[in-house]
Fold this protein.
Amino acid sequence: MATNSYFNNYGSVDRVHGEQDLIEDLVIESIKMFGLDCFYIPRNPASRDNIFQEDDLAQYLSAYPVEMYIKNVEGFEGEGDFLSKFGLEVRDSITFTVAQKRYRNAVSNFIDTADSDGDGTNDDVDRGTSGVTATERRPLEGDLLYFPLNKKIFEITFVEHEAVFYQMGSLQTFDLKCELFEYSQERFTIPAVADVLTADQASAITAVFANHKTVQADGTPVVDATFDANTDSQNTAFEDFIDKNNDIAADNIIDFSQGNPFGDDIF
Amino acid sequence: MYGNHFYNETTRRYVAVFGTMFNDIEISRKTGSATTQRMKVPINYAPMQKILARIDQNLQNNAPAITLPRMSFEMTGMTYNPDRKLTSVTKMVRSSAADGTMTTMFSPAPYDLEFQLNIMTKYNEDGTKIVEQILPFFKPDCTVSVKLIDELNTYFDIPIVLNSVSQEDTYEGDFESRRALIWTLNFTMKGYFFGPVSTKKQITFVDADIYPTTEVQSGDSRAQGGSQITVAPAIPTAVTTVSINPAVAFLLTPGTKYRIYDIGGGDFTSGVSAGDMQTAWNKYLTNDDSTGNVYKVGDIFTAPDIVAEANANPTVWSGSKVAANSQRLSTAKVTPIVTGNIANDSERAAFTQTIGIDDDWKAMVVINDGDGDGATTSGVADEHE
């Protein structure tokens, strides 16, 4: 039941390799023509919790420009903007296509050799990808993409490597399924790197969440929150009860005095 | 309703109180033993105007999907609770010293208000960090004192009961669906709703026409023996201040009638005995400390003119003699007695006093000549005083 050797497009003979390389080059060229320069931001784990199986102190310490093709050409997918119990939620999703070869050259090779968090080990070791062969390197879920058109950051939720199914017997692209990033005080410390990332590009990325911080930029703890003014005023509004009808600031309506056995002192 | 417009902002206060309980929760994230991040958890009242939500949180169009962790709460309903019903005719009362008014309100209707607190986090342990700061205070209730009615200036103890805690974690499913970590806490706030506040002026004056007999004598169309009795509040005043100068020491108006409200001397713990007080009263009222009259609470006297007496006989009212008497009588208190005819409101206002909340006071009785026979200052008045 052997396949016809005269029409074998999926073998490993040099003739097929040449055609596969040609297709890969054409894919890369077409992405360079119709794609967009995005910035790949690898996630640097800081403290994995083996009880709850999560890492709540992830850091983002570097960014690498790489061209990508936007697959959903008619706009963002997902549920869009809506009002939930927790205020406005924006559930935009987007699918980027990046050439595998370009990812390895423009991103993965840098991650292999960088020590962004200064802990003495390269980022690929921190990310658990050391020892992965060059042809097996792929984008990781949890890494981020900075989309310069709307200046938003998307999180990779799933990497589909078989979106174009073994064209000429090989895979040329990754499809990156992304959703708009849910921000939870993750730390962005992205410096400019010569020949890789300009100062303007680095500052544009780190500025995205500047107005949403509840901790200082350097990650040091703060007692008085400096997060965005609207949220802060909302928190304060409850205890600074305003007698709206009389247009005056009434006394605080909860009795926290020491003489009150039900007051704050017992807490 | 029933023609009354009122709005006590009670629900608004309950929402503010609930929000205040949870508006200062902070969580921290640690690497080893070192605190790396410490953040305040935002909270907002969940139902909000959509346009404001959009403007507040996405003004520059570059907002993240959502900023977590965050909390929101909403009032989901209210139910009448008959177990906490008070008698309908019971009134709450508050008097105001500032403007001489009395504010009353019928007992409130007890209602259980249901609140739901939602906590959304990106990380599982962020949720437990928040919930664990809430749960210990509810056993199963946490009581706060709340000023619900400004006019009454009274704090009500409002228990807030934590009914249930549940967690939703949509971790299952394909990789393109978002994971939502949401804690839901249901509370019951045992509140009240109040009716309108009624503010009335303090009763400072009572006119009562009392006629011992309704017989009409020939030649007089009015009932005989009619005296008008006026009751007005009287705040006790001190007889003297401590001084060696008679013009300063004695505070009462000479020639005016007063009733003894407090004989003075307190508990006689300051070295002044009951006999000393009687000596002082005798000296004050008879100009002779050996007269031996016994004065008691309720006695009526006419204030003497000590200054005139001192001028007439300086040796009797001078120096330490004045000082000793004024020191003793400074602890005594009297209320004024007014007799005579009240011709108009201004005369009535002249002896009407405003009573403060903490004032100790007695009624001051004024007898008027109701029948015009000129008998108010005679035995009739004395009888009623």
Chain A is about 20% helix and 25% strand. Residues 89 and 197 of chain A are 31 Å apart (CA to CA).
